[in-house]
Amino acid sequence: MAAPYLVLSASPRLLKLVPKPGAWMETFKQLMGFVLLATVVFLAWLFGRQVGVGGMAWLLVSLLLFAMGAWVYGRGATPLASARQRALAVTAAVALAVSGLAVGMAQARSASPGKRAAAEDGWEAFSPERLAELRRAGTPVFVDFTADWCLTCQVNKRVALNRTEVRERFARDGIVLLKADWTLRDETITRALAEHGRQGVPLYVLYGRDASQPPRILPEVLSPALVLSAIEEAL
Partner of 206 for a Cys bridge, out of 64, 101, 168, 216, CB 3.0 to 4.6 A? Predict the structure, then answer.
């Protein structure tokens, strides 16, 4: 009984910290609308990465149809409108929403790993065969298990992996860069993650020149100094 009593006795003081209702709530609601719009922008970018610019354009068409449906409903299905006007508004709104959903679903089904650019900025597409080939040749390898929807992966890429000093060190030591893109949950990459005891991304694996030595697993959050230190120790 002690814990509930403490909560009840402390609640008046906690309630004093809660802002009182007022005009600020309307402003806050509008600001949250911008947060939702930013989320839509991110998801549209992610969708475009999977199906290309054309697919992203069709997604925007889908959202446009949804918006038109909402506008028609808001304009025609008001309490002051006649029953016939409300019925027409609801019918038109549903038709537009269904059309938008159909367009979006059709483009979502068209997404496939084969439509993605596997390699970029000096990175090769990951495959177990390519990794084994490089290991047999005694070539050091850095594998980036990543996904477009992984925010940590994107931050690590910008603040560490794409830094000039890190890329120069990769080139100087002849380290081959392999990108294991898990955006569409590729089964081959899923199995490779499982081999390292992981079920998701990010995962960064550095292989040295000696194929008999185990790889080095880097932390999930990277910095240039951390990557450079790992290369120094591995090589």
Answer: 216
Compute the Cα dihedral for 12, 13, 14, 20 and give only its sign: positive
Q: Of 50, 47, 42, 75, which Cα lies nearest the Cα of 61? A: 47
Q: In this structure, what token pair is assigned to residue 154?
A: 């994107």
What separation in angstroms does the CA of 137 have from each of 82, 130, 134, 170? 79, 11, 5, 17
* Amino acid, single-letter form, for residue 10: A
For the purposes of burial, counting CB atoms within 10 Å of the CB of 124, is it exposed (0-12), middle (13-18) or buried (19 or more)? middle
SS3 label, residue 108? helix
Which residue is listed with tokens 């390519």?
130
pTM value surpassing 0.70: no
pLDDT tens digit at each of 235 positions of the chain: 455 544 445 566 777 777 888 888 889 999 999 999 899 888 888 887 777 777 788 888 888 998 999 999 998 888 888 888 889 999 999 999 999 888 877 766 665 544 444 456 789 999 999 999 999 999 999 999 999 889 999 999 999 999 999 999 999 999 999 999 998 888 999 999 999 999 999 999 999 999 889 999 999 999 999 999 999 998 8
**Closest of 99, 86, 90 to residue 70, by C-alpha:** 90
Q: What is d(CA 185, CA 46) in angstroms, rounded to the nearest whole number?
A: 14
